[in-house]
Amino acid sequence: MSSDQDLAKLIRDVPDFPKQGILFKDITTLLKDKDAFKKSIDLLAERFANDHIDKVVAAESRGFIFGAPLAYLLNAGFVPVRKLGRLPAKAIRAEYTLEYGTNFVEIHVDAIEPGEKVLIVDDLLATGGTVGATIELVKKLEGDIVALAFLVELSFLKGRERLKDYRIETIITY
Ligand SMILES: O=P(O)(O)OC[C@H]1O[C@H](OP(=O)(O)OP(=O)(O)O)[C@H](O)[C@@H]1O
Ligand SMILES: Nc1ncnc2[nH]cnc12
């Protein structure tokens, strides 16, 4: 497993999922390859090795796949942002629109201390709606957002333009 192109080749295109007109980037074909999965995590982790991250925040559910091993490697805590009604203790919520729908996400109010250095992680950046809602939640808890990290970026959906105030790190761009 030598390059980002090798990783990109392992992502499967599924037309018209979950809706007509959406070209779905299916990462399960990359995840099941042990070298590719390891390489993906290692490539992301090395970008933040010197950032002294306190908390990795990731959105349910594909964000968890990358967020948890990154938190482990960066010696940081892991904070789940979950879809509506899943968190058991006191939480705050944000509404968002993504490439194929709208939803709410939530975070526990005690998940982040003011001033903690936060890395937000997800598998894929499309319109930026999901990460935008995650940013809103972290800001309400006064976390210091160091960067946003994604394995995949769909550049034609212009998520990066919407997030221009933030450092964004991605491995594979379409
Ligand atoms: O940039 P956006 O337009 O917001 O799209 C990106 C989001 O869409 C996908 O999540 P999805 O809501 O499909 O949920 P899942 O992780 O549970 O599959 C993906 O994992 C990102 O979180
Ligand atoms: N085209 C796409 N493929 C996979 N996940 C996505 N999340 C939002 N848009 C997506």
UniProtKB/TrEMBL annotation:
<dbReference type="InterPro" id="IPR005764">
    <property type="entry name" value="Ade_phspho_trans"/>
</dbReference>
<keyword id="KW-0660">Purine salvage</keyword>
<comment type="subunit">
    <text>Homodimer.</text>
</comment>
<dbReference type="GO" id="GO:0002055">
    <property type="term" value="F:adenine binding"/>
</dbReference>
<dbReference type="GO" id="GO:0006166">
    <property type="term" value="P:purine ribonucleoside salvage"/>
</dbReference>
<dbReference type="InterPro" id="IPR029057">
    <property type="entry name" value="PRTase-like"/>
</dbReference>
<dbReference type="GO" id="GO:0006168">
    <property type="term" value="P:adenine salvage"/>
</dbReference>
<dbReference type="GO" id="GO:0005737">
    <property type="term" value="C:cytoplasm"/>
</dbReference>
<comment type="function">
    <text>Catalyzes a salvage reaction resulting in the formation of AMP, that is energically less costly than de novo synthesis.</text>
</comment>
<dbReference type="GO" id="GO:0016208">
    <property type="term" value="F:AMP binding"/>
</dbReference>
<dbReference type="Pfam" id="PF00156">
    <property type="entry name" value="Pribosyltran"/>
</dbReference>
<keyword id="KW-0328">Glycosyltransferase</keyword>
<feature type="domain" description="Phosphoribosyltransferase">
    <location>
        <begin position="29"/>
        <end position="168"/>
    </location>
</feature>
<comment type="similarity">
    <text>Belongs to the purine/pyrimidine phosphoribosyltransferase family.</text>
</comment>
<protein>
    <recommendedName>
        <fullName>Adenine phosphoribosyltransferase</fullName>
        <ecNumber>2.4.2.7</ecNumber>
    </recommendedName>
</protein>
<dbReference type="GO" id="GO:0044209">
    <property type="term" value="P:AMP salvage"/>
</dbReference>
<dbReference type="GO" id="GO:0003999">
    <property type="term" value="F:adenine phosphoribosyltransferase activity"/>
</dbReference>
<dbReference type="InterPro" id="IPR050054">
    <property type="entry name" value="UPRTase/APRTase"/>
</dbReference>
<dbReference type="InterPro" id="IPR000836">
    <property type="entry name" value="PRTase_dom"/>
</dbReference>
<keyword id="KW-0963">Cytoplasm</keyword>
<keyword id="KW-0808">Transferase</keyword>
<comment type="pathway">
    <text>Purine metabolism; AMP biosynthesis via salvage pathway; AMP from adenine: step 1/1.</text>
</comment>
